[in-house]
Amino acid sequence: MPDSGYLALFLVGLLGGTHCVGMCGGIVGALSMGGPARWSMHLAYNVGRVLSYATAGAIAGALGAASLGLEGQMPVRLVLYFLANLMLVALGLYLLGVTRALAFSERLGQHLWRRLQPLTRKFLPARTVAQAFPLGLLWGWLPCGLVYSALASALTAGSSGRGALLMLAFGLGTLPNLLLAGIVLARMNEFVRRPSVRIFSGLLVLGFGLYGLLGLLRLLHWI
Fold first, then answer.
1. How far apart are CA 112 and CA 142, in angstroms?
2. At what angle do helices 129-139 and 110-120 cross, to 10 degrees?
């Protein structure tokens, strides 16, 4: 995964923020009630959520690195590289308005979420930082097309550390919308919904993916 992948995943998290608010906005809104006194809980929830993204990225990066140790690793490496760039293309299409481009990936995490969701009830309603942080850790595994598609990129990171950093970049991109939900959410939504912003970002992410696929074709001497 080239260094441009960090920027691509950050943009996906930032511009896909309205999707994130739709899935997590209820909890975020509840934590925001009460004004400034609730900021610590709000921050704790989001730190937990982003840490889960980074953990998932570390696991994916480690699995990808381990697969490269298999005999005849070049075909495996090419498949992972193809998958990662294909996901970037899907993410770019999502930002351009093809909202169903990521629907298939949300079905992949349903089995895990059915096991984790009952645990969230232990921390609801969250009234303290000690409740908000583990709630964020659990909510970070909610089946989400954006998260799981970004996670595919971590498979080609080459190590658990780089995989974690890729997902950390994505998680940081989601923060402006979720951390400020209920305060300046209307203005943030207005910005990310601007056609020019979404088209530019979508084309940029799509370009990253297509450039990677073009490099793969050249490596295979198909062009």
1. 9
2. 170
